[in-house]
Write a structure and sequence with these properties.
The chain has a single domain, classed as Ferritin, CATH 1.20.1260. 75% of the residues lie in helices and 0% in strands. It has helices at residues 3-32, 36-62, 82-109, 113-142, 147-157. It is elongated and about 55 Å long. It binds MU-OXO-diiron. MU-OXO-diiron binds at residues 16, 19, 49, 52, 93, 96, 129.
């Protein structure tokens, strides 16, 4: 694989692991608040991010490249309320989408069609991720302005389950 592309995918492994870490910090926040459904939502999110990182990890090896792991940045650990948490999630997912777009630019630049096809999966996944997060945020902002609603929403988010993605 092209060196620049291999380095960029390695950097994205780090970004996906950071995402897992970031959502783990939110998982801890919701655990402190005893919001079990929100905590469950974050737990599913963490597992998805781990799967995203491993998808790229496995792909580098499949292409005969070398996985190089870097240190993971420290995420923040405090928020004022669940709305603020989900605003951060949406901002973060938009940032990840821009990173996947940049990765695709590199794959196209070095004319690696196999990598373009592999990375397309991630782009589609980002559309889904942004939409999921937007929906939670919309409900939180527009409907949920009291504790009773937060309680009901917590019950709802408890039903989210992790389905291991088939990447690529
Ligand atoms: Fe792996 Fe939420 O992007």
């Amino acid at each position: 694989m092209n060196e620049k592309l291999e380095k960029a995918i390695n950097d994205q492994i780090n970004a996906e692991l950071y995402s897992e870490y970031f959502y783990m910090a939110m998982y801890a926040y919701f655990d402190r608040m005893n919001l079990q459904g929100f905590k469950n939502w974050m737990n599913v999110q963490m597992q998805e991010e781990h799967a995203h990182a491993m998808g790229m990890f496995n792909y580098i090896h499949e292409r005969g490249g070398k996985v190089i792991l870097d240190k993971i940045e420290q995420p923040k650990s405090d928020w004022s309320n669940p709305v603020e948490v989900f605003e951060d999630v949406l901002k973060h997912e938009k940032y990840v989408t821009s990173r996947i777009n940049d990765l695709l630019d590199i794959a196209e630049e070095v004319n690696d069609r196999a990598a373009v096809s592999f990375l397309d999966w991630y782009l589609k996944e980002q559309v889904e991720e942004e939409s999921n997060v937007s929906n939670v945020l919309k409900t939180l902002r527009m409907v949920c302005d009291d504790k009773h609603c937060l309680y009901m929403m917590d019950k709802d988010l408890a039903s989210r389950t992790f389905n291991p993605p088939v990447i690529g």
